[in-house]
């Protein structure tokens, strides 16, 4: 990338803000240290944006919105086409930086960028989604048509675990709908969003349409309270999602808040054992288990599956974490020390609660990287619902196994869980799959697919405590979230003479 902001960050040692179409150095005195999760080497300092910087960003976004809303949608999407091409061209460079700051394997980092590019591609079809509805003669000589309008300045707050995909769930669609957008990415991996922003500017979008502000709770609360921010998209942990939803809606904003999870895979005795084992390894430990759609509970149904735990254990014992660039690594380190220490504590407490700890990754060591945030593959058998390992989202490479006798019992277990992000069933029986898909109270269901993340023309439909709001991320629901509808009733009488005042609400 020419004039790369990443080069600038490496030489200056600080991450810039992006305000009013320019990358700027923050005037803050408050900085957050960003370090490499495999080594603890300091990568850069991340600014905690000042109130003045936040205020300027919102004001600039408001000005940009006023012009952008009148740009025809077909012209708006031409910028998106250019953006999509630039993202594809630089996918590898973005993935390399993403991998460095998150610790993800390069292949996984490429996937993170790619799933975001797909959302931009979906946004390129916005002309059709921005079409309203029309009916002639709703009453005699009266026609009704509706228009889809952008709502104004929108904001997005994103988590650390998908620093490319999740920002790309938000601003490309919001902007394609005619809005301006303020992004507050995770302070734990701000380099990837900086690259996405640089390419956004290179795509030629008018200045001010996208602003990027770094920080933490204070910056989020500023956006939640600012009267000129009309809608807030949030993705992150459950307590923060609840806070964002309550504070944002209390301020009469539209809010969609995607939150944490505990995802179950139901394993029926007629399933293909090899497929099940492989799917469980990838979906529990991929990205070090730091995915909101990770499978963290395997529910083995029936006596015949009881000893499948041996195969799961053998397959998990066969993988190991490693630093980016290590081709033999299945996944990377946890994002930071605090996260690693929390997962270690959960693992160490599991046996005392009665779990059968088949694999204990708490003391994992990776040669050459003594300071990495490593957790080895971890397997708990005979887990019950009262244990901490079941109740909390571990967000590490750890799998719980629960044994039940019947599919009905499995459904009851899943439905009693407060979260509803994702679930899957592995079976050869259409009847069992159909029953599970129908009766499970979870928003995204995979049938012989471990991680059922919908493509961007659908929406990301987590439910229960995994989602607060009405309209979900991306797909048609995102278009409804980032727009409002105006309905026009019109009459063009052939004579000027009205037939007397209408004193009712009926149309005549
Ligand atoms: P997090 O909640 O700690 O942080 C998310 C964002 O909120 C960050 O930008 C952070 O700066 C900000 N933030 C943190 N504390 C805050 C506070 N007290 N008040 C206001 N803002 C605050 O989440 P994380 O650790 O970055 O991400 C992991 C979590 O995100 C997991 O729980 C995971 O399941 C969830 N997640 C959910 C989805 C989904 O679509 N449902 C997708 C990805 C991640």
Automatic annotation (TrEMBL):
Which GO BP terms, alphabetically? L-valine catabolic process; thymine catabolic process
Q: GO molecular-function annotation terms?
A: methylmalonate-semialdehyde dehydrogenase (acylating, NAD) activity
Q: Which Pfam families does this UniProt record tie to the protein? A: Aldedh (PF00171)
Does the keyword ATP-binding belong to this entry? Answer: no
Write the Enzyme Commission number(s) for this entry: 1.2.1.27
Keywords assigned: NAD, Oxidoreductase
**Domain Aldehyde dehydrogenase: residue ranges:** 23-488
The family this protein is said to belong to: Belongs to the aldehyde dehydrogenase family.
Q: Which PANTHER family match?
A: MALONATE-SEMIALDEHYDE DEHYDROGENASE, METHYLMALONATE-SEMIALDEHYDE DEHYDROGENASE [ACYLATING], MITOCHONDRIAL
Task: Spell out the NCBIfam families in the cross-references.
Answer: MMSDH (TIGR01722)
Q: What is this protein called?
A: methylmalonate-semialdehyde dehydrogenase (CoA acylating)
Recorded source organism is Salinisphaera orenii MK-B5
